[in-house]
Amino acid sequence: MKWFRSGLAVLLAAGIAMPTGMLASSHREAPITALDHKADITDLYAFVSYSADQAPNTAPSKVTFILNVDPLLEPANGPNWFPFDPDILYEIHVDNNQDALADVTFQIRFQTQQFQLPNIPVALAGIGPNGANAPGTSTVVVPPQIQDFDNPGLNLRQTYTVTVVRRGENGYQEATELKNSDGSPFFAVPTNNGPRTMNYDALFNAATYHLENGISVFAGTVDDPFFIDLGATFDTVNLRTLASGVPGVLTDAEDAASENFASDTVSGYAVNSIALEVPIQMLTRTGKIEPATSPAATIGVWGTTSRPRVTVRNSPNPANSFGPFRQVQRMGNPLINELVIGIGSKDRWSMEQPVNDAQFAHFDLDPQIVHVIDAIYGGALTSPAAPRNDLLPLVTYAAPIAAAGTPAGPIADLLRLNTGVPATPPANASRLGLIGGDPAGYPNGRRLFDDAVDITLRVAVGGVLIPSFNHFPNNRLGDGVNVNDAPFRTQFPFLADSPSGRNRRHIDPGEPGCTAGTGPACPVS
Amino acid sequence: MFLVTNGEEMKAFNLVVASLFTASVTCGQTLPGTRTPAEQKIAWAEASIKAHADHSQPYNDLAVAYIARARETADPGYYDRAEDALRTSFGLIPENLEGEKAQIMVLQGRGEFSRAFDLARTFNKKTPDDLLLYGFIADAAVELGEYPEAENAVQWMLDMRPGNVPGLLRGAALRRLYGDIPGALQFFSQAYQQMAPTQTEELAWTLTQMADAQLSVGHVDDAEALLRSALQKFPAYYLAQESLARVQMARRHYSEAAQLLQQRNQSFPTAASRYALARAFEHAGQAGEAETAYREFEATAHGQRDSAMNANRELVAYDLDRGHNPAEALQIARGEIAKRHDIRTLDAYAWALHANGQDREAQKQVSKAIAVGVRDALIFYHAGVIAEGQNDLSSAAHFLKVSLETNPEAETATAARAALDRLTAASAEVRSSK
Question: What is the pLDDT of residue A30?
Fold first, then answer.
């Protein structure tokens, strides 16, 4: 009689080792996403929508969500540029009952059509009003300027679907696909090659869809709205010494200025963006627009990217799987995975569900970056001691974002937004959001112009949510980059035009004003 | 539920498998006088220690190289050397992660699966991005019979780094346990294609695993081809020799099997390999040699009975099959089942219970093994005989048929057919008496 050998595991264990991952830069904060740019979430924004002529205390009606992916896209880097990945499931999740589970999810999937002119070597367009033929023939080799999504010069065009999934009682899910009233598809705006090839603004406007149910959708390649002195930050927080004479500390004048004193490393780069504007009553658990004082007014938002997974079992095992996808990355608050989560946990963090974040609480409430910066300042900066309960508003439902009586819920990295707080008119808004006296800004949601870097430095390192720590220099920490290099729209989707490949400009540290002591201000387009 | 092989799928897959291992058949042979991959790693680590004696990592590298050499040679003495290197490493940096991982590998190598499991989980909690720690959890969990935990860990590996070799190899092992032989071969071949041609032992190991999977479903020729290729890549590889002996046993070429096992046992024989040799001699009709080999097995296995790395499941089989000591077999099996409940141990325990007339409990235990999903002719044969003992004749016939369908070349096939005939005759007799 035959008996089985034991020890397959013994033999496996003695086998192959693996290379370890490595941390790259801000937009590639985890080893997995350093290898998978298409699925790399750069930023998530959620804010009560506003308009250029917004009056103070206008009642909130809609929330805008923006999920940006695929970082630092160089607009001149043709000829294939930067399509969304049709294999990725992009999602924006909303928790409206403080359990850190998605109650409403927007699922976005892309489809690609290619090769409208398969014999042309690169994407070409923009010669003459009717295009240009090969000499002596009627064969179009250069189509006219691209002003719509049917122009063959696009050569690659993308459409996308948006599905709203609502979680009901007992885990029941109801899915609804959003559509244009005429059933036409949603097109994504391509990269801005340059003014000869395309009328980018015409495409941008054509690709901004306002649906009958009050939802608006947009997707495409746009200016990367994030602004930061990335090079200085990742040179071990080697922030520049500005007028205060202390590295990374601004003067009152610098702090108040709507201009830059160091170079925005992200300037001139594009990013792929998905934007949705949704009536608030579709988001709250009550189905109504709630006042800011209501415990039902605050939602938690996070974005994810997921790819199809290979399962151990050929059929998915419901016990171990959230579905046929594996989550590649998530984002709630900005800079959490970059600056807070330890390097040995970044991938696991990226792939986890927020509801399981208690395992990372030791990072959230005692950020190691605080100790690093304290060490850099040699003790000149006093930060609050751990556990940092002052940071709980970022990872639970708590004041000053959520109203009194709102259940705190589990520790979870969600971007919290009190949907009852009226949007601040753009002219009165502060880049410093909530800590700048502007109740509609980060960390109450996050707008495109909120200075996430300075706010994070002041809240996490300076501890300014604690009144006794809200003093100089804690409340003047900053990288010297106060504004984006491109102006934002003042209506949905609020994003700025992608720099064109032909004319894009990256603002460098050597330019006048972009390095300390070399000029009055760093140029902003 | 019993899975049966999809014949067409398997045929198509075999073509792919055949092409992949024949394509690079001469790439990584270990030539006489050249160093094996593990020997090279040992040399590199020793040189690194000379250059940086005050760093911990070179000692970790040396430990891992010794562990790899243990797998190349079956010499457990390398685990002692690995531990010596790790002591130095931990003296320089206590609890350094790479050292702890090597320590877990040593524990696995010595069969200390519970300790390995606990240590792997502890360090996984501290460093959840380390891929191999999930692999170590899975390795130990499989040995302990904690299959959901193993699957969860391997799924994390596949999710974190799709297509990674350690994840694929462990996924293949689990797929085999779950009865998905084509799926297991698919993962094995994906892993194989990613391996460097110079890593000859790893290539040979993977081919051997694929051969075992093929043999488990009666694909004897495919198994032999894979093993011949493995032995070309890593000559005299003891694991491939053991598997090739099983191929010869399946072909009823018992003398050839014995010859292979004699070669294999020339260095660092295990109790299990001694037992295999004894059985090959016995089947070949070499009674004297068989007797000697059985005595050597018995002495070795009894000597290891209380140690972590033991041959207690083989000892149970021996006691039941040849030693005529079912009481001792049950005692040993009870000791093992108290420590682990993997399918092999469950099956051994069930068979020992059956031999002691405790068929109801035996049926319960063998059902647990079958519930995992494994497609294994021996387990199904045991289940059939145990069901017959319970007078559950329809279940008995079912299990015996599945056993034969799973692997018509299995050593148990003759006995299964005889039992099935017996059941058919009994059933006919019942019908005629009515």
Answer: 66
Which of B67, B180, B246 comes nearest A314 by C-beta?
A: B180
Whether the Cβ atoms of residue B130 and residue B123 lie closer than 8 Å to each other: yes
CB B182 within 8 A of CB B10: yes
CB-based contact, A315 to chain B, within 8 Å:
no
Eight-state DSSP code of residue A422 = P
* Chain B contact probe: residue of A12, A329, A351, A357 with most B CBs at under 10 A: A12
In this structure, the dihedral spanned by the alpha carbons of residues B218, B188, B160 and B120, taken in order and rounded to 10 degrees, is 80
Question: Is pLDDT above 50 for A275?
Answer: yes
pLDDT exceeds 80 at position A195: yes
Amino acid, res. B152: N
Q: What is the mean pLDDT of residues B78-106?
A: 96
**Structure-token pair, residue B339:** 């420590």
Q: Residue A273: which region, alpha, beta or left (left: phi > 0; alpha: psi -120 to 50)?
A: beta
ipTM, 2 decimals?
0.81
Tell me which residue of B307, B308, B358 sits closest to B329, measured CA to CA: B358
Share of chain A above pLDDT 70, in %: 91
Residue B97: per-residue pLDDT: 94
CA B428 from centre of chain: 41
| A15/B71 touch (CB, cutoff 8 Å), yes or no | yes
Contact A343 B142 (CB under 8 A): no
Query: What is the rounded average pLDDT of the residues A423-447?
Result: 97
Helix (H, G, I), strand (E, B), or coil: what is residue A21?
coil
User: Is the N-terminal amide bond of A426 cis, ω within 30° of 0?
Assistant: no
Question: Residue A317 pLDDT > 90, yes or no?
Answer: no
Q: Report the gap between the CA of B415 and the closest CA in chain A (Å).
A: 10
**d(C-alpha A394, C-alpha A413), whole Å:** 7
Q: Is the dihedral of CA A98, A101, A103, A109 positive or negative?
A: positive
By C-alpha distance, the chain B residue nearest A3 is B314
Residue A29 pLDDT grade (very low, low, confident, very high; cuts 50, 70, 90)? low
Omega within 30 of 0 (cis) for the link into A407: no
B126 contacts A344? CB cut-off 8 A: yes
- Who contacts B53 (Cβ-Cβ below 8 Å, separation ≥6)? none
For A69-78, the pLDDT digits (tens) are 999 999 998 8
Whether residues A18 and B160 touch (CB distance < 8 A) is answered with no
Q: Long-range CB contacts (< 8 A, 24+ apart) of B121-128?
A: B123/B97, B125/A359, B126/A344, B126/B97, B127/A344, B127/A345, B127/B97, B128/A344, B128/A345, B128/A347, B128/A348
Contact A507, A499 (CB under 8 A): no
Helices (H), B52-96: 57-73, 77-92
Report pLDDT for A1: 37
Contacts 24+ apart (CB under 8 A), A424-429: A424/A50, A424/A54, A424/A56, A425/A50, A425/A54, A425/A55, A425/A56, A426/A50, A426/A52, A426/A54, A426/A490, A428/A56
Show residues of chain A in contact with B105, CB under 8 Å: 13-14
Test the A interface: residue of B155, B270, B307 with most A CBs within 10 Å? B155
Question: What pLDDT sits at residue B22?
Answer: 40
| pLDDT single digits (tens) B147-166 | 999 999 999 999 999 999 99
For position A379, what pLDDT does the model report? 84
Chain center to CA of A480: 21
Q: Would the CA dihedral through A473, A479, A480, A481 be positive or negative? A: negative
CA distance A363 to chain B (A): 12
**Residue in chain A lying closest to B105 (CA):** A13
Contact A8 B173 (CB under 8 A): yes
